[in-house]
Amino acid sequence: MKRVVIILMCMTLLFFGTTGCSQLSQEVKQTADDLYAAKVEFVGDNAAVHALIEKTGLGRIKDYTIQLETSQEPYGLIINIAEKDGSFNESEFVPSAIQLLGLIKNLDYVEVNNGDEQFKMSSEEASALIDENVKTLGESKDKLKSIIEELTNK
């Protein structure tokens, strides 16, 4: 009887572990699909850039404005956060910055600031973090999914 209970417990753990991994994989696939569908050709497309920001992790920030630096290269996206609550954590911005740099074709840098603190990442820095050209994320949904999985597991 004890052996049967142990086997059932192991099977239950295995089932729930597999289901959890499957669910996470499904969420990553859906995120990649949503982001890839929202990719942007030019940083000057304000509405499209805003929609893409909402699909990244930065969409959870509710009170922000964006500034597009498009008059000359390097082309930039500046996200100004209105709240100054002391919870400015640069590491929270890295995945979204990588996604934005990869999915906005001519974007050269992303900057996030709240008036007191600033986070900035260039295409070159993002490429170094993922060990490949960040601009290739906009060329393949599978590559984007792979990078999202990598960033999720860090």
SSE topology:
Blueprint: H1 2-37, H2 46-55, E1 64-69, E2 76-81, H3 90-103, E3 109-113, E4 118-122, H4 123-130, H5 141-152
Parallel strand pairs: 2-3
Antiparallel strand pairs: 1-2, 3-4
- Let me know the largest β-sheet: 4 strands, mixed
Approximate shape: globular
Secondary-structure element order, N to C: HHEEHEEHH
Strand adjacency order, main sheet: 1-2-3-4
Q: What share of the residues lie within helices? A: 40-55%
Strand content: 5-15%
Label the structural class: alpha+beta
Low-confidence stretches: 1-20
The DSSP helix count reads 5
Question: What is the end-to-end distance?
Answer: 41 Å
Protein described:
- With 154 residues, the protein is α+β, with helices and mostly antiparallel strands.
- The chain is built from five helices and four strands; from the N terminus they run ααββαββαα.
- It is 52% helix and 14% strand.
- Strands 1-2-3-4 form a four-stranded mixed β-sheet.
List its salient traits.
154 residues
Brief summary of the model shown:
The chain is 52% helix and 14% strand.
